[in-house]
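Ticket #4471: structure export looks truncated?
Reporter: QA, pipeline team
Priority: medium

Steps to reproduce: submit the single chain below to the structure queue and open the exported record.
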Amino acid sequence: MNSLDWAVLIGYFGVMIAIGVWSHKRVDDVSDFFTAGGKMPWWLSGISHHMSGYSAVMFTGYAGIAYTYGVTSFITWSFPIALGIAIGSKLFAPRVNRLRSRLHVASPLEYLKNRYNLGTQQALAWSGMLLKIVDVGAKWAAIATLLSVFTGISLNQGILITGAITAVYCTIGGLWADALTELGQFVIQLLAGVAMFVAVVLKLSDKGIGFLGAWDEPALHGHGKPLVGPYGTVFLLAFLFIKLFEYNGGMLNQAQRYMATGSPREAERSARLSAILWLVWPIVLFFPMWMSPLLVQAEKPDGSDAYALMTEQLLPHGLLGLVIVGFFSHTMAMCSSDANAIAAVFTRDVAPVLSRQARGWNARSGLIAARVTTVVFLGLSMAVATQVNSPAFKDIITVVIKWVAGLMGPIAIPMMLGLLRPFRRSGPTAALTSWAMGLLAFWLVNYPINWSVDGGVPLEYQVSIPLAVSLVLYVLIGYLKPEDTPERLAIIERVNTDGDSAAATVPAPAGAADGTVSARTPE
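Actual output as written to the record:
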């Protein structure tokens, strides 16, 4: 990097902070901070939903998969996400929006204490927060790894720089700042992605390699196969099922984008836009990665540095800075939205249970608590990021694929399926049992069993077995021990209907109308 690249990078950071400061005036209470008061346009929600779904891990971990295996990086990652969101646009998006518009909650998990009970809500809240700390820690490590390639600064310095700047704008402006910065980041990413695509096409042309003829090159042997290596059919199906839940609300921050729109119909449109972006745009980003074996020799065994090395070689200064800004765009978008979501869960769902004072927070106190929680979450995730290469985590892609994919199912299944009428018989017993046994299955298949099996348990089973265990138990226990009380049935009706119905007799959570934290903790 030279002074021009640094100018682009510093200018980007300045704009992100300016947007956060501008968004500050739109935030009056926790409802504005966490769900934009339900006033976000569907198109902005859709772009924000898309941008908050992936990070610089794409340019490290998934770049390594693309370098090693080729198009399977798209077939087993972006494509199932696009399909899952498209399905969820009908199945989940309108219902998640009604959590805000009909139940008047500000956290995606806030409805669980009425849908199940307080214990279920707390179990899912705590496990979701802990998982997100690890997940976001991996994202900080990914962007710091890229930054170290370009600038030579240490991993910890990179984590501190990106984390601190993200903390400033997302703490000041809440979800509005997240969405508006993500819009700007999308534009930057568009320019950077197209620049890299064109640079690779031109370089291949200089080598006498045609756009389509590249696939016949020996270095890309097998790269055109959709399913190779550990990424087979079982992995694809498991990943599709996981992403159906994760990207429609199980990731928490994605649920907020649906909640932030004005109506269930707009939430559905938002999801459709995000699905289209996930289907089309990653192809532009992945093409240079697929071609990278023809242009660079990765220094790391997993090929995770291939994209960064190729960027340094192909782009002139200025454009190099723009692509680096694109890396930051991905990571800061996801991490800031995760921080906002976890702050919502803590201040709305956890703090009122831990503290009598928290149950009496007014609009101003709740907003201060939300901002403090955001900073604390970012700090904890940054601390985890410094340990991402330790034996406990091994590497970035392991954390993202194995931990997040493997643990998301047990957390998301009770939350997401609890919205749907066909699963109305499943109550707190089904929810807690499926959650606990899913976590136990993850630990068993990834550690004791994995260590004892020759060659280890295949990756597809490491991520699919916990999901299968949780799903089967949630459904089975619901039928064997139905807990569909009138109160729980009414909650389900409220999130499945827009018009007047018997569900209208269910009161909104106390304090929700004025932006204060709910004090209700029903048995």
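Status: closed, not a bug. The export was complete when the record was re-opened. Leaving a note from the reviewer for reference: The radius of gyration is 22 Å.
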